[in-house]
Design brief:
17 strands; Alpha-Beta Plaits; 5-stranded antiparallel β-sheet; 2 helices; 4-stranded antiparallel β-sheet; mainly beta
Length: about 280
């Protein structure tokens, strides 16, 4: 026999797929080749035949699955069998995100009860320190990326959404936690395992746009009286020892049910669609 004849053996074709975490998948493809060669052909020459796929070659079915093992068995003096095993993680990078929803409680100050009645003593004085638990929704998103931009991520960690994000109105969402771990896939390619935590603040007694604003009841020891700023006094003409309620213009508010709350913007805004979690 002059030269070698290589042909694929369809009888040994096989494919398996498994996933340990339901997120990443590992595929394994087995293919066989039949080789007819002269009896004196060296083993190394058989393994280096150009007609056979080289170690590390990508499989035509998926670029993430590559040749990891080449097994040669001599059947007869002129007959060889080669088993090629491809293996790889797919989709290794930029696959669909994995989203988990949970809730987080926070204590927020209130001055009225559930029915809207002011919280005060029988003498009409506001009672401080009353809070209620507010439940915010939290989305934990996991996704793999070939590369990440930490500078951009830093901006999002100090901002709230300026666009509608995951169905929530602008101002409600905030990236509160970010974790990126460098890893290597089955193809020895580096990538990043990213986990992002987004909290959706319930806009209690405010608008969605101001959900993350600081909110403090407007009160103090100084009031505006006759166009001048003076120390607030009690019914006996003595300087008050506790702050009095103030209207938006700085004059005293005597009705606890009409207490005014100041709101201050604490964070900038950014388009959360640019985070790339779902792109």
């Amino acid at each position: 026999m002059s030269g070698e004849i290589v042909s694929q053996m369809w009888s040994v074709d096989a494919f398996t797929a498994e996933s340990i975490d339901g997120f990443r998948k590992v595929g394994k493809i087995t293919e066989g080749y039949q080789i007819l060669a002269d009896p004196g052909t060296a083993k190394l020459a058989i393994s280096e035949l150009a007609a056979l796929p080289a170690m590390g070659a990508k499989h035509a079915a998926n670029d993430d699955i590559r040749l990891r093992n080449r097994d040669f068995v001599r059947i007869s003096p002129i007959h060889w069998q080669a088993i090629m095993t491809y293996q790889g993680e797919y989709p290794a990078i930029d696959g669909k995100p994995k989203v988990k929803w949970s809730n987080a409680e926070s204590d927020e100050p209130i001055d009225v009860d559930y029915l809207g009645n002011p919280i005060m003593t029988v003498n009409g004085e506001p009672i401080d320190g009353v809070t209620r638990k507010i439940n915010d929704l939290v989305a934990t998103v996991e996704r793999n990326y070939r590369s990440i931009n930490l500078v951009t991520t830093h901006v999002y960690l100090d901002s709230v959404n300026s666009d509608t994000f995951m169905g929530f109105a602008p101002g409600v969402a905030k990236l509160t936690a970010f974790d990126a771990t460098q890893a290597w896939d089955a193809n020895d390619d580096g990538y990043w395992q990213v986990t992002a935590r987004i909290m959706f603040r319930y806009p209690y007694n405010t608008t969605a746009a101001k959900a993350w604003y600081a909110r403090i009841r407007h009160e103090g020891y100084i009031e505006k009286l006759g166009g001048k700023l003076v120390h607030a006094v009690d019914a006996f003409g003595q300087n008050v020892t506790r702050p009095v309620l103030l209207k938006v213009d700085g004059t005293r508010e005597t009705n606890p049910a009409s207490a005014y709350w100041h709101e201050w913007q604490r964070y900038g805004t950014a388009a959360y669609s640019g985070l790339g979690l779902f792109a």
